[in-house]
Specification:
Layout lengths: L1 E3 L4 H17 L9 E10 L2 H13 L7 H8 L12 H4 L9 H11 L6 H10 L6 E5 H13 L5 E4 L7 H15 L12 H4 L8 H14 L1
Parallel strand pairs: 1-2, 2-3, 2-4
Helix pairs in contact: 7-8
Amino acid sequence: MRFIQWRHADWNRAYYADVKSRVVRHGRPAEDHLLIAGITPYVAENARAAHAKFREVQDLNTNVFIPQVLSDQFGIDLSGHTGTDRVLAAIDRSLTPEKAWIIDNAIASFDDEDITLEDLTHYLGNNPMSQPAIVGDAADLADFIESNFREQAFDGLAICQPYWPGPAASFVDLVVPELQRRGVFRSEYTTSTLREHLGLPSAPNRLAERTAATETGGAA
């Protein structure tokens, strides 16, 4: 099992296919190596409330816009800009194609194309790039999970919480039933170990094998 970064669907599908092909080339079944993406869900009864909660959390960040910091992050010169400048006016996405997905994800999370450089600073401070925010109502998050799971962008998700308590309960109460309705998530556990829950075969007990070999050798 490998924990992976979530960027965007195209990148993750390509990464998934590459890793799975490498696993097969090395003699292992592709399904024995799971790719688990991390996300930070913000979910509420409706999308507007979810985006409002996301904005509220971002605004609690005390980081301030420092031109050099974002310049280093995106590989472009942002000197002369202030925190109130619009991101899309200050940053030409075509000049930083490898990092454009960060801007796209930030805009989607805020649900606002007019986010500022200060907003982007808060987004980068609150959302580690390995677990970006996914914001919306239950159907929005279920759509994201179902489509990317079925299109082989990941095998599963590590759900990270932006704060405690609240988000975990909201995800369980709102998103899980929708995933179960769609047949994407189990409705009960029929196995007893983590490996079995993940659909992985039982691993041999190497200690038991060594013990048995030692005992056999001693008896001989």
